[in-house]
Design brief:
Blueprint (H helix, E strand, L loop, with lengths): L10 H9 L7 E5 L12 E2 L14 E4 L13 E9 L13 E5 L11 E4 L3 E6 L2 E6 L21 E3 L7 H9 L4 E5 L3 E7 L3 E2 L10 E2 L2 H12 L2 E8 L3 H11 L5 E5 L10 H8 L2 E4 L4 E2 L5 E5 L2 E6 L3 H19 L8 E7 L10 E11 L2 E6 L16 E5 L11 E6 L11
Parallel strand pairs: 4-5, 11-14, 11-15, 12-13, 15-19, 17-21, 20-22
Antiparallel strand pairs: 1-10, 2-9, 3-5, 3-6, 4-8, 7-8, 16-18, 18-19, 20-24, 21-22, 21-23, 23-24
Helix pairs in contact: 1-6, 3-6, 4-5
The chain binds ligand LQZAQKY5, molybdate ion (MOO) and magnesium ion.
Pathway: Cofactor biosynthesis; molybdopterin biosynthesis
EC number: 2.10.1.1
GO molecular function, one term: molybdopterin molybdotransferase activity
Length: 422
């Protein structure tokens, strides 16, 4: 039997082919109570000035500053206190010469006042049963006043679409009255694990079989990327049931991920399934390690990601190829993993002709970014994934890398992203 020869393409070219797919984000409205952790599908615009009235930032007395100009330690100036208001109350009085209003933080400045005297610098007392206060220093117009629009001006674009809604954005949305928030509809990502060797998590180990760990791993990666997981279950390595399952699943999702069965083995059926479906294979070999066998196909604008069964290869394949298209559907302008430079802290002697993505721990020490592999660098390894917050990019070549050299890293937990990393 003649083995099909696969032609590896560069990683940048592979990503480009996927990103040519027209899939775009769709807006849905959710209650503000459910918007935390979602992605804005429109720019967040200030619907009013904040604050929308001049207000006191301290507890004290609202005065007209010109009445205070003669006040000094030797010449206290006295004010009649004509009203008393807390936040949420509006004084009906017009404040006249040498008059003041007792005012609490957050209350609207009464008509005729333009400065606030904090309690700490005033002396208050009663005369003939009426409240008075005196001060021994002068105040300028605007002293201790929180002005209209000092926080935001009506019409300002405050947060760009595609941003992850964090607690601060939640506060803004509430401030501007967004009871219903336009967010990106989460893409539904279908997922199958293939492999006759796969056991359920609850099953006991038996010779030749292993527990299906990729499903749980990718499900978490889909969620981290911002998608919704639609897990269709695991499939044995048998052509007909796999073909039917994949075909039917495509009616329910736009993105379909499979793990395993994508290489050249006798029971690796994904290539034949794509062929029978009539799907257009975008690539079936990438010059990268791990994940060189990653195969991506397109069928009716739906994308089929044939990720490797080897856990580390599967993990890397997801982050490089599936994450960006999910993020684009979340309106991100920077859908790829953020790339930074870091200093390698250990030797990495193993040379490889393909670009390597080494599961790594990137950390800050002595004020700079440093990186070290988080475990064994083989594509069948699971344990190196736990400590990986980044993928170190080691370009292909004939030499290894030494401690102290500068390398590029892709940050897995970052929310900022990158426009185009290669
Ligand atoms: N003659 C060749 N053999 C292989 C090549 C090659 O080019 N020529 N490529 C190797 C590379 S590179 C990789 S990576 C693997 C890819 O294999 P498949 O994607 O076809 O995946 P499987 O054969 O189904 O499984 C591979 C490996 O992963 C384990 N696995 C599968 N699914 C899971 C899961 N859900 N959870 C945990 N582990 C899983 C499986 O038991 C196998 O050990 O092919 C090489 N071979
Ligand atoms: O390239 Mo295989 O995909 O991990 O080693
Ligand atoms: Mg295989």
């Amino acid at each position: 039997m003649l083995l099909e020869r696969r032609k590896p393409i560069p990683i940048g070219e592979a990503v480009k082919r996927i990103m040519e797919n027209p899939l775009q984000g769709v807006t849905e409205y959710v209650s503000i109570n459910e918007s935390y952790g979602r992605y804005l599908s429109e720019d967040l615009i200030a619907t009013s000035d904040v604050p929308h009235f001049n207000r006191a930032p301290y507890d004290g007395f609202a005065v007209k500053s010109s009445d205070t100009s003669d006040a000094s330690p030797t010449n206290p100036v006295e004010f009649e206190v004509i009203d008393h208001i807390g936040a949420g109350m509006v004084s009906a009085k017009v404040v006249g010469h040498k008059q003041a209003v007792r005012i609490m933080t957050g209350a609207m400045m009464p008509v005729g006042t333009d400065a606030v005297v904090m309690f700490e610098v005033a002396k208050d007392y009663e005369k003939n049963g009426l409240p008075y206060m005196s001060i021994k220093r002068s105040f300028k117009k605007g002293d201790n006043v929180s002005f209209i629009g000092e926080d935001a001006k009506e019409g300002q674009i405050l947060v760009k679409k595609g941003s992850l809604i964090n607690p601060g954005i939640q506060a803004m949305l509430a401030t501007f009255g967004y009871q219903h928030v336009p967010v990106a509809k989460r893409p539904r990502v279908g997922l199958f694990a293939t492999g006759t060797e796969l056991l359920e998590v609850k099953e006991e180990l038996v010779p030749g079989k292993i527990r299906n760990s990729n499903s749980l791993m990718i499900a978490a990666q889909i969620e981290r990327a911002g998608g919704i997981v639609h897990y269709f279950g695991k499939l044995a390595d048998e052509f007909d049931p796999c073909y039917e399952a994949v075909k039917n699943a495509l009616n329910e999702v736009d993105l379909l991920i499979t793990t395993g069965g994508v290489s050249v083995g006798d029971f690796d059926y994904l290539p034949a399934i794509y062929e029978k479906l009539g799907a257009e294979v975008l690539f079936n070999k990438v010059s990268m390690r791990p994940g060189s066998v990653t195969t991506v196909a397109q069928y009716n604008e739906k994308i089929l990601f044939g990720l490797s069964g080897n856990p580390s290869a599967c993990y890397v394949g997801f982050e490089l190829f599936a994450r960006p298209i999910i993020r684009r559907q979340l309106f991100s302008k920077k859908p790829h993993l953020r790339k930074e430079k870091a200093q390698l802290v250990v030797d990495f002697p193993k040379a490889n002709p393909f670009t390597r993505f080494v599961r790594s721990e990137t950390f800050i020490a002595d004020g700079r970014l440093k990186v070290t592999p988080s475990g064994l660098d083989k594509s069948n390894i699971i344990m190196s994934l736990a400590g990986a917050n980044s993928l170190m990019i080691l370009p292909g070549g004939t030499r290894g890398f030494t401690a102290g050299c500068e390398v590029e890293v892709l940050l897995l937990e970052d929310q900022v992203g990158c426009e185009w990393p290669w």
